[in-house]
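A note from the maintainers: we've had questions about how concatenated examples are separated. There is no special marker in the raw files; a new sequence line simply starts the next protein. For clarity in this README we add a label.
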Amino acid sequence: MIEVNNPCTEEQNVPAVNYRKLVLLAGFASVATAISLILMKAAVWFFSGSSTILASLTDSLIDCCASFINLLALRFALTPADKDHRFGHYKAEALAALTQAAFISGSSILLIVHGFERLQHPEVIGYIDAAIIVTTLSLLITVCLVSFQSYVYKKTSSEAINADRYHYLSDILLNVGVVASLILSRFNFAWADGLFTVILGFYILHSAYHIGKTAIATLLDKSMPPAENAKLMALILGIDGVLSLHDLKTRQAGPHTFIQCHIVLDGNMPLTKAHKIASEAENAIKIRYPDSDITIHMEPDTDDTYKDVEFMDEASCPISPERYNQIKDKNGETNC
């Protein structure tokens, strides 16, 4: 079975209360970091006039706006479900991530244009030593923030925190590029300032694509990875009395996992026993996904049950070869 790097597995088993504390703490840390970096970079750019420092400052300004929007979205997303939003508000995180992608795309395009202009008309950079020191300090602060965000994302799989984390990961490379550009400029390679600005602009644009793609997948209720669905199938089929399952559908929003499927049971068993088996399946799923919303439909083991079954991710519904041949002989080809 293929293993997928999916943090929404055993490591994510974080209660909703802890989820709220961690993501809000990460959100406040992001805003505070962005404000600090803006103040430092603005002072250095004012004295040096460096294009790459301006690129870094622009990115920090966008970071601050995006992080603030992220924080507001997180507070809304963590609002309990109400009568108008029975599934909760967690998709607000994906909307925040999509907003970040738009912000980042706009800033990266501006940086690319500015970089090309500086390539055509190189300028001498002043106060290079101070610029290198401040940029290195910014790099260290950003590394600390990303480390904390990575910890929070590992524990919660918050999409908004991941988008913010990915953005600041690009900042680390951006600051490395700024330092390299300043060092080259110190040795009279004036073209380096504009060149690194263009390169970093394209890299940030790539980051925006990744964030936007992930957010859209969540908004469109993308299923969990096939390998994770396969593990979920094995978990349900391991319950004594479950003969087969089909029509498995999964999606995630914030800390919640939504799971629904049809399980096939012996049609002659009492309803109370069938309900007990379904409850055992739900409890087994809850152990793996504590904050999950589970819907299990019970069906009898009859030929009609297998006529129009579906399973997402192009997997087959697990039934025995003997049962498959019985159904095929009576009904023709089946989707199982």
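[label: protein 2]
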Amino acid sequence: MAKPIKWGIIGLGKIADKFATDLVKVTHTQLHAVASSSIERAKDFAQKFGAPYHYDSYEDIFKTPELDVVYIATPHSSHAEYSILCLKNKMPVLCEKPFAMNLKQVEKMVEAARENDTFLMEAMWTRFLPVIQKTQELIEEDRIGKIKTIHADFGFVAPFTPERRTLNPALGGGALLDIGIYPAYLSLLLLGYPTDIHAMSTFGKTGVDETTSIVFKYPQATALLNATFGSRTRTEALIYGEKGYIHLPERFHESKTVTLYETDKDPLTFTFERETRGYNFEIEEVNNCLRNNKKESVKMPLSMSVKLMSLLDEIRQKAGIRYEGIDS
């Protein structure tokens, strides 16, 4: 029988609730401890998901016996701080995306992981979905030929709650880091780092980017990407090649289906049903890495997180997206 992996969670907002809902469905996996700035929230969360330990201090989670790994689900602005805190305590980390606020912070996280010989991975959960695996297979099998362009978007109407993370610059709010990361990552995964980047943003009342549009140029391809809090978009991805195209339908970053359109052939749809939101796949990846004493994931290595944050930094620079205290 596989060794049970006992998880802790730091930060108990909406994303932590979704993550925990999937985690308790993964075999040989337990939610063991949770930590929040509020003891009431920590207690309620622990009771809801059956965690035996709960704390009102993030540092106290390291007192938990037999804890194997911590998932960090705090706002973007504190990802680096709490990841490094865990790593210095030799605690393996799965940190929510974006990994941090900029490349300098990510490099410090990677350095801490290597200095302490401790596992670290960015929670880019889309990477592990079966539809993304299938999309890569179809491309590798040359079913659509060489990719010529990618179109991907993500948009919804965000309620005006300036104190919440989405629109709060102090918490790393803004469309690019919150949802634009998904189209940007898809292009990076399938085409690599672009040779040229164009980006522009419009800004809302709180100063964060409300809409960011991006164009990546590659030697023989382009990517047209968009993220917005101002409109509900189709939130789909289309990967166009010389011999056909691949469609990831709404909402592409959590889709259960992918359709292949080959020239002069009937479309083929591949369906991957699941009873979870999809976080279970990244949880299983972390579990397997820990059981095999791996310090990083082959599918989502730290080098990819460095590239992704470098890309986001460059997009921010081109679009004029700045955060006080982060950008010098």
